């Protein structure tokens, strides 16, 4: 039997690989977005600290911008971005 | 209608009929949904549509303040959870860490606040203040001095204040359950 493909739709799913399912700051799911954004994904990414804690980038940036000491809100260790992602 | 048009392109996960909530409102809703109050505490929403302003009633069942009833007013600002809620004690209380204007000295309401804390953390912090008043770094220095020098007298003063009456020159309204 022969057939011809006239059109096709591809479907993909994605999810962030985080060690938790919710951002500790906004408490929204990591696979959703921070409370200032509407579209999850690359425009509202996650970032990891060297302490291994993970947040929506917008959430942690807002927190750090208001603090003198750049500490992780989860463990109070100095906050530094982890560069080598899993 | 206008709003709908403007948001037309954006993909939202919530249903469109809801009015858009602010980040502080979204976060407080989650806090309140997960609120796990100890049996000595209850909340009261004078305006049920306003989740950002509410009261917490603590009725300790042990310690110096057993049988008292203390009302705290919570005001959650637009910057929550990046800033802690403003919490004031509306019941006059003889307590080393609460002054006569109702200001509360609790680390997580000030310098130790972090956005991963929740309303629940504050409830437990406040409850702990009644179980273990902390005479170091006090807001009511007189009460702190008495607690440090004479625990029995402190206990007497607390009961006197809760029954309604004078401790020194300060009159306290009755706040027993």
UniProtKB/TrEMBL annotation, chain A:
Transmembrane segments: none annotated. This is Anaphase-promoting complex subunit 11. One of its GO terms (molecular function) is cullin family protein binding. Its main location: nucleus. The keyword Disulfide bond does not apply. Keywords: Cell cycle, Cell division, Metal-binding, Mitosis, Nucleus, Ubl conjugation pathway, Zinc, Zinc-finger. GO terms for cellular component: anaphase-promoting complex. Together with the cullin protein ANAPC2, constitutes the catalytic component of the anaphase promoting complex/cyclosome (APC/C), a cell cycle-regulated E3 ubiquitin ligase that controls progression through mitosis and the G1 phase of the cell cycle. The APC/C complex acts by mediating ubiquitination and subsequent degradation of target proteins: it mainly mediates the formation of 'Lys-11'-linked polyubiquitin chains and, to a lower extent, the formation of 'Lys-48'- and 'Lys-63'-linked polyubiquitin chains. The mammalian APC/C is composed at least of 14 distinct subunits ANAPC1, ANAPC2, CDC27/APC3, ANAPC4, ANAPC5, CDC16/APC6, ANAPC7, CDC23/APC8, ANAPC10, ANAPC11, CDC26/APC12, ANAPC13, ANAPC15 and ANAPC16 that assemble into a complex of at least 19 chains with a combined molecular mass of around 1.2 MDa; APC/C interacts with FZR1 and FBXO5. Interacts with the cullin domain of ANAPC2. Interacts with UBE2D2. One of its GO terms (biological process) is cell division. Pathway: Protein modification; protein ubiquitination. Residues 34-76 form the RING-type domain. Belongs to the RING-box family. Pfam families: zf-ANAPC11 (PF12861). It is found in: Nucleus. InterPro entries: RING-box_E3_Ubiquitin_Ligase, RING-H2_APC11, Znf_RING.
From TrEMBL, chain B:
Residues 1-25 are annotated as: Disordered. It comes from the Eukaryota. InterPro entries: Ub_conjugating_enzyme (IPR050113), UBC (IPR000608), UBQ-conjugating_AS (IPR023313). Residues 23-167 form the UBC core domain. PROSITE patterns: UBC_1 (PS00183), UBC_2 (PS50127). One of its GO terms (molecular function) is ATP binding. It catalyses: [E1 NEDD8-activating enzyme]-S-[NEDD8 protein]-yl-L-cysteine + [E2 NEDD8-conjugating enzyme]-L-cysteine = [E1 NEDD8-activating enzyme]-L-cysteine + [E2 NEDD8-conjugating enzyme]-S-[NEDD8-protein]-yl-L-cysteine. It is an enzyme of class 2 (transferase). Keywords: ATP-binding, Nucleotide-binding, Transferase, Ubl conjugation pathway. Pfam families: UQ_con (PF00179). Residues 12-22 have a biased composition (Low complexity). Pathway: Protein modification; protein neddylation. The active site is at residue 105. Its EC number is 2.3.2.34. SMART domains: UBCc. Belongs to the ubiquitin-conjugating enzyme family. This is E2 NEDD8-conjugating enzyme. It comes from Allacma fusca.
